[in-house]
Every structure is written in structure tokens, then in C-alpha cells.
Amino acid sequence: MTKSIINSTIKPFKATAFHNGEFVPVTEQDLLGKWSVVFFYPADFTFVCPTELGDMADYYEKLQGMGVEVYSVSTDTHFTHKAWHDTSDTIKKINFPMLADPTGTISRNFGVMIEEDGLALRGTFVINPEGQIKVSEVHDLGIGRSAQELVRKIQAAQYVATHDGEVCPAKWQPGDDTLAPSLDLVGKI
Predict the structure, then answer these.
(1) Is 168 a catalytic residue?
(2) For 24, how many CA atoms within 13 A lie in the half-sphere containing its CB?
(3) In terms of CB atoms within 10 Å, which end of the chain has fewer, N or C?
(4) Strand 122-127 with 133-139, pairing
(5) pLDDT tens, residue by residue, 98-147
(6) pLDDT digits 0-9 by tens, 11-20
(7) φ, ψ at 83 (rounded to 5°)
(8) Which residues pair with 179 in a beta bridge?
């Protein structure tokens, strides 16, 4: 059995990202001080990946409004990210940094590296401003993710972080009732 990544602190990394038409350096330090999403996908120029990245691009403005930065990561190079961005109408919508992980260091740090293929699984990680992983979701390669559901999870994580003693039940949405765990609730839900 492996140790859970939840509540662990992100490990050091250095990467080059394609962002806003430029190649920029990104490290784990860039994730501190704000909420972040690290969004792994297997490879550029594939099939499910552009649908997920396009979906994330559609929600990026909302996430930014929530104080969240998104970092997509694949084991492709930053040059490949640029080429994909320049040739795909879906990928042209992306305004968040696209990190290159050709050595697999970041993918290994988050436990999503498929060693025999040199690719990352579809992994989504929500990181709080202190650099702790609060949400970890990993999918098989054929199963796409939903940015809408990710937004809800981040809203719940942000709520719990600012409301000591409260937790968010299943399907919680902002404005819904929360729970305050206590002995009185045991067996009554």
C-alpha cells in the first residue's frame, strides 16, 4: 500500500512552460501563496487530451476569479506545446501555463508517471496556498475529466479551509448547508 498524497507538500521541480506566447520558467515556488490546479495529461496531439484542456480553458476565467491558477503538464517539451497551441483551434483557447515535463520529474513527484510509456496518467491535483495537496484525482487514459466538477471541488476545499469545524457533504454547492461533525450527528445522517 502506498502513502496518500493528500496533505503532503508539493516537491521541488523546475520546468519550462509555454504561456501567453512565451517560454517561461515555473517552479514549485510559483504555486505558493494561491490555490493551484496541476492538471496532468498523457500527450499533445492526441484525442481525449484536447477535449479536457479545452474544457479547462472554458472554466479558466471562473477559476481565476476564485484565485486559482491552472498548470497543465505533460511529458512533451515546451516546443511541442507551442506547436500544438499554434495548430489547434481548441488549444489556442488556453491561457494557462502548459508545463513541459520531458524528464518525468513532475509526473513522478505526483505519482502519475507511466514508466513503460513515458507518459502521465490523467491526474488532477488541487493545491492550497501553503503548497499542500487537498484534492487528488487520477484517471485511466481513456476517461476524460470535467472542469465543472473540479470547480465544485475547489469551492468546497476553499470553504473548508476558511470555515474551521465545518465539512461539505456530497454534491455540496456554495450556499448549501454544511455539516459540523460531532457526536450528535453519528448515525443521524
Answers:
(1) no
(2) 12
(3) N
(4) antiparallel
(5) 999 999 999 999 999 999 999 999 999 999 999 999 999 999 999 999 99
(6) 999 999 999 9
(7) -60, -40
(8) 167
